[in-house]
Amino acid sequence: MDKIFDEPIKQASDFAFNNKVAGVFDDMVTRSVPYYIEMQRMMSELVADQCSENGVIYDLGCSTGATMIMMDQTVPQHIKFVGIDDSAPMLEKCKTKLEERGMTRPYSLEVADLNSGHVAMKDASVVILCLTLQFVRPIAREKLLRSIHEQLQPGGVLIVIEKILAEETDFNRDFIKYYYDFKRRNDYSEMEISQKREALENILIPYKLSENITLLKEVGFRTVEVFFKWYNFSGFIAKKLS
């Protein structure tokens, strides 16, 4: 169970996806992200309908593999999954979970830094950024998204789930309040909420939904559709022209 921030921290430091986080990540994310399991189900349905028969599905920022495990139930077994993350401990946890599940489809796990603005992909028909783009430095986001668009097959799609800012400041304050209420309902204390907020302050930098959509269109995507929205969380899918 996630107890990372349940003791006072004398010296604040940036959040890191280290061994300690990898060990409790699944509990952390389901208690911290509203409708997380439902978002995973929605992505798995979208991927099943959008992937091509000769394409590869890339999960960038795959963490401990929840998205790949969910997609394994909906995507044809011959289609390969590639999970990419910059955290070796998270990938090790992902590897263990996929092996325990007995996943038989072709798959590979790779360490790569998305902040470089480029990840090499081959035959990509679907690319997923689930709660990942928000951790990419703003200066690298356009370059990364442009690289993804260029490497997608014609008609390929990018699926993004993000923590976002409200379009209006007044509502943004309200949405954050509702979000912290959600965490309280999931048994996070005031100290845990406060200390995690401080740890994430410099590394999780959200955009407005409109800013994300504009960015996707600027790098070449012409069709962008929102498929999920809960206060300051959203999911959207962008399609490359055939």
What descriptors fit this protein?
242 residues, Rossmann fold, globular, alpha/beta, seven-stranded mixed β-sheet, 7 strands
Summarize the helices and strands and which ones pair or pack:
Blueprint: H1 19-32, H2 36-50, E1 56-60, H3 66-71, E2 81-85, H4 88-101, E3 107-111, E4 124-130, H5 138-151, E5 152-163, H6 169-185, H7 190-200, H8 209-218, E6 223-230, E7 233-239
Parallel strand pairs: 1-2, 1-4, 2-3, 4-5
Antiparallel strand pairs: 5-7, 6-7
Describe, in short, the structure shown.
The chain is α/β, with parallel strands linked by helices and 242 residues long. It is built from 8 helices and 7 strands; from the N terminus they run ααβαβαββαβαααββ. Helix 4 links the parallel strand 2 (81-85) and strand 3 (107-111).
Characterize the structure shown.
- With 242 residues, the protein is an alpha/beta fold.
- The protein has helices at residues 19-32, 36-50, 66-71, 88-101, 138-151, 169-185, 190-200, 209-218, and strands at residues 56-60, 81-85, 107-111, 124-130, 152-163, 223-230, 233-239.
- It has a 7-stranded mixed sheet with strand order 3-2-1-4-5-7-6, with helices on both faces.
- The chain has a single domain (19-164, 204-239), classed as Vaccinia Virus protein VP39 (Rossmann fold, 3-Layer(aba) Sandwich).
- It is 42% helix and 20% strand.
What is the second-level CATH architecture? 3-Layer(aba) Sandwich
Order of helices and strands: HHEHEHEEHEHHHEE
Rg for CA atoms: 17 Å
Strand runs, count: 7
The overall pLDDT average reads: 92
Q: Which regions are unreliable across 5 or more consecutive residues at pLDDT < 50?
A: none
Shape: globular
Share of helical residues: 40-55%
Q: Find the CATH topology.
A: Rossmann fold
The number of helices is 8
